Amino acid sequence: MTAERSRSSGRPTLDQVASLAGVGRGTVSRVVNGSAQVSPQAKAAVETAIAELGYVPNRAARTLVTQRTDSIALVIFESGQRFFTEPFFGRIVQAISSGLVDRGLQMVLMIAQAPHERQRLEGYLTRQHVDGVLLLSLHGTDALPAKLEQRGVATVRAGRPTNPEPGCYVDADNRGGARDAVAYLRRQGRQRIATITGPLDMAAGIARLDGFLDVVGTGPIAHGDFSEESGAAAMASLLERHPDLDAVFAASDMMAAGAMRVLREHGRRVPHDVAVIGFDDSVIARHTDPPLTTVHQPIEQMGQEMVRLLLAKIDGADHPSDPIVLSTSLVVRRSA
Question: Which residues form a coiled coil (predicted)?
Answer without folding.
Answer: none
